[in-house]
């Protein structure tokens, strides 16, 4: 059964057409004036409109245009006594589902209404299918994105376009606490306020309505990004009006794919980290040092902030292997790594260069500051008793070379070479010493890095 609005200024026509459609099982509401019909359309939902073309206070084209503007899914059938082509063409071009000429047989009217309703149903099904496919495509695009910035772009676009939200804030739950990942359509102040609210939400798998949405929004909902019982964050959507259940289901669907993307990002980061870690000491390896050096050189060139490199080599490490064996020597290298990390800041980078050599990148540090850190490391290594917990008390010293960007070099390869040369000067002199780079330093022998240094 369909709800049909019937508009005709002739009482007989309203009675006849109304009886036709009622007998066919439809619910018919009849009007004689354009004004009353518009009021009804503004207040109620109809599946179809049947209207006469010629009316005392206007014409059926006004009803057609008003219906198409305010209720795009409602079909309109135009009836007229004018047996002319021009009005028919005009009505069809304006979106009428059918154009009938009086007198209209009951069968013709019933057929026109049934055809219009079938077309409406088909369009709704097609629209629903298109929406479902669009949701699937966007969900897949979100869940398979392994770059953070692209993920946030895809997620914001999908949440706003497929839910009709006027604004969106995506807040994740990384290990160090919740933080804003991305936003669209809100100021920074509103963004921070919404993030604070999301932080207070208990992890769960159900959407939550947020009270007192910020102006000018009427509704605010937080949709969890949950996968496998773990809530990775929330998508907070702001709406100018009400929130239909279909919108909530779409946002919930996208939230699950966002959670899967966050989980995949975490796994990918773990695998990526393994590729940049030294297998033995679990410090960063040279592959990572190359990347971070390149980034640091670019950043320093743009900001004018210096950074420094320390190149370290343990003195007479071969003697440890000869005396205690290679297993003890390997454990000692791990302990050296822990000491180095304890002597620098969390945002500095400690990498194993190879064998018993290490490189430390000191961010935002000039040569003066780097010399102080280098001397701290030298003294700490000298006074430390290695492998004491295992009943040993191995003593070591180290040579440290210092080079700063841009004071000593302006590209990463040259900077690393200058630090290496400074360290090697110590090797050739007293050992257990710190040297800073200088222009007159001899290059290190090519064969030195092909083996663990014995001297």
Indicate the CATH class of the largest domain.
Alpha Beta
Order of helices and strands: EHEHEEEHEHEHHEEHEEEHHEHHEEHEHE
CATH architecture term of the largest domain:
2-Layer Sandwich
Q: Strand order of the main beta sheet, please?
A: 2-1-3-6-7
Q: How many alpha or pi helices?
A: 13
Structure in words:
The protein is 48% helix and 20% strand. The chain is an alpha/beta fold and 455 residues long. The chain has 3 domains: 3-124, Rossmann fold (3-Layer(aba) Sandwich); 145-275, 2-Layer Sandwich (Beta-Lactamase), CATH 3.30.450.40; 286-450, 2-Layer Sandwich (Alpha-Beta Plaits), CATH 3.30.70. It has a 5-stranded parallel sheet, sandwiched between helices. A 5-stranded antiparallel sheet has the order 9-8-12-11-10, sandwiched between helices. A hairpin with a 6-residue loop joins strand 8 (167-172) and strand 9 (179-184). The longest helix is centred in the first third of the chain and has 38 residues, at 106-143. The radius of gyration is 38 Å and the shape is rod-shaped. Residues 450-455 have low confidence and may be disordered.
């Amino acid at each position: 059964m369909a709800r049909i609005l019937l508009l005709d200024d002739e009482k007989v026509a309203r009675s006849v057409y109304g009886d036709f459609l009622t007998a066919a099982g439809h619910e018919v509401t009849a009007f004689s004036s354009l004004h009353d019909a518009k009021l009804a359309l503004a207040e109620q939902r109809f599946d179809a409109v049947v209207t006469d073309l010629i009316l005392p206070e206007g014409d059926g084209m006004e009803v057609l245009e008003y219906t198409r503007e305010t209720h795009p899914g409602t079909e309109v059938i135009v009836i007229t006594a004018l047996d002319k082509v021009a009005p028919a063409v005009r009505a069809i071009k304006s979106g009428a589902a059918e154009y009938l000429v009086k007198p209209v047989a009951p069968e013709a009217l019933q057929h026109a209404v049934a055809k219009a309703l079938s077309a409406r149903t088909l369009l709704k099904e097609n629209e629903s299918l298109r929406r479902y496919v669009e949701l699937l495509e966007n969900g897949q695009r979100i869940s398979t994105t392994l770059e953070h910035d692209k993920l946030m772009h895809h997620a914001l676009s999908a949440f706003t376009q497929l839910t009709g939200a006027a604004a969106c804030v995506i807040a994740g739950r990384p290990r160090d606490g919740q933080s804003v990942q991305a936003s669209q359509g809100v100021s920074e102040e509103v963004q921070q306020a919404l993030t604070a609210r999301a932080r207070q939400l208990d992890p769960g798998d159900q959407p939550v309505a947020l009270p007192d949405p910020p102006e000018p929004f009427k509704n605010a909902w937080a949709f969890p990004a949950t996968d496998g019982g773990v809530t990775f964050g929330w998508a907070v959507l702001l709406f100018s009006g009400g929130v239909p259940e279909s919108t909530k289901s779409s946002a919930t669907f996208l939230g699950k794919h966002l959670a899967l993307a966050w989980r995949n990002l975490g796994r990918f980061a773990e695998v990526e980290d393994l590729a940049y870690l030294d297998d033995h000491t679990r410090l960063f390896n040279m592959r990572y040092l190359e990347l971070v050096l390149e980034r640091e050189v670019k950043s320093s060139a743009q900001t004018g902030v210096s950074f420094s490199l320390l190149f370290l080599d343990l003195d007479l490490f071969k003697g440890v292997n000869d005396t205690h064996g290679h297993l003890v020597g390997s454990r000692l290298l791990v302990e050296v790594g822990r000491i180095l990390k304890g002597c620098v800041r969390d945002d500095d980078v400690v990498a194993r260069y190879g064998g018993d050599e290490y490189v430390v990148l000191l961010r935002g540090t000039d040569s003066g500051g780097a010399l102080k850190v280098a001397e701290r490391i030298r003294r700490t290594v000298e006074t430390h008793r290695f492998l004491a917990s295992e009943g040993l008390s191995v003593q070591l010293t180290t040579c440290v070379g210092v080079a700063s960007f841009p004071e000593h070099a302006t590209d990463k390869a040259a900077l690393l070479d200058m630090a290496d040369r400074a360290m090697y000067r110590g090797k050739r002199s007293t050992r257990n010493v710190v040297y800073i780079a200088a222009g007159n330093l001899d290059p290190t022998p090519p064969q030195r890095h092909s083996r663990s240094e014995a001297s």
